[in-house]
Amino acid sequence: MLTAILTVVGLIILTVGIVWLIDKFVPKKAKPIINILLWLLIIFLGYKTFDSVYGEIKFNQLKEKRYKVVIESLKDIRDAQLAHRTVTGKFSNNFEDLIKFVDTAKFTITQRRDSTILDLEKTKRFGGVESFSDIVIIDTLGFVPVKDSLFGADPRYRSMMNVPGAQEGAKFKLEAGKLAEENIAVFEASVDKSVILYDQDKNLVNKEKQVVAVDGVNGPTLKVGSMTEVYTKGNWPKSFNTKKED
């Protein structure tokens, strides 16, 4: 944007210079028409400069508004996936199964307590002298539906595959698997920025997809999780969170 602005400003300065030269050297009869045309050109270039600056400002405002809504959906997907791993030991690779899991699965509520028992082997080894060992006992206290724990009475998880604010039918991409070497479960939910900003200036969208900044969403997608490392957070900065991040 800075290059475009400097170019337009340079043209305006050049046009003003031409006006001055015309005023100095062009015959009086031709001056009025030429001056009017040149001033119209100056006004047009000034408008283009303003529009290029204000257009990007509006783009950034709309982008942040849409990103924040999409991020909340990605957080819901992440929470559902983490619950899925807690209960099943792995992540889901499709939304149909993930939604079914939220609808039907339950968390097991447990309680850990320390206890001491008679260690018969040690007792025998020490000639009948009673010896004790410390153990941890895990008691099952009950079960809580995953749906109630994560979403309460809100049914929004049923449509968490849909990208909010995008064109109808736009959906998040969901992947899951394991890291080959560590055999650790991983997942990633993502959406291309062009899907979120489908109705915006293509040049601005392409520029946004190449962002590398501390206070921006880096790369071409908005995503949570990773298929290449153990990572369950999103690729957005804290400034995009509408509520406290877990």
Written description of the protein model:
The protein has 246 residues and is α+β, with helices and mostly antiparallel strands. It folds into 2 domains: 2-54; 60-103 and 161-240. It has 7 helices and 5 strands. The strands form 2 sheets. Strands 3-4-5 form a 3-stranded antiparallel beta sheet. Strands 1-2 form a two-stranded antiparallel ribbon. A hairpin with a 6-residue loop joins strand 3 (173-178) and strand 4. Helix 1 (2-25) runs antiparallel to helix 2 and helix 2 (31-88) packs across helix 3. The longest helix is centred in the first third of the chain and has 58 residues, at 31-88. It is elongated. The relative contact order is 0.13. The model has no long low-confidence stretch (mean pLDDT 83).
In short:
This protein is α+β, with helices and mostly antiparallel strands. The chain contains seven helices and five strands; from the N terminus they run H-H-H-E-H-E-H-E-E-H-H-E.
Q: What is the molecular shape? A: elongated
Strand content: 15-25%
The main pleated sheet reads as: 3 strands, antiparallel
* Secondary-structure content class: alpha+beta
Strand arrangement, largest sheet? 3-4-5
Bin the helical content. Answer: 40-55%
Using only CA atoms, what is the Rg? 31 Å
Number of E-state strands: 5
Number of domains: 2
Terminal Cα separation, in Å?
A: 36 Å
Provide the low-confidence segments as ranges.
none
Q: Order of helices and strands, N to C?
A: HHHEHEHEEHHE
- What is the typical, i.e. mean, pLDDT? 83
Determine the number of helices (DSSP H or I, runs of at least 4 residues). Answer: 7
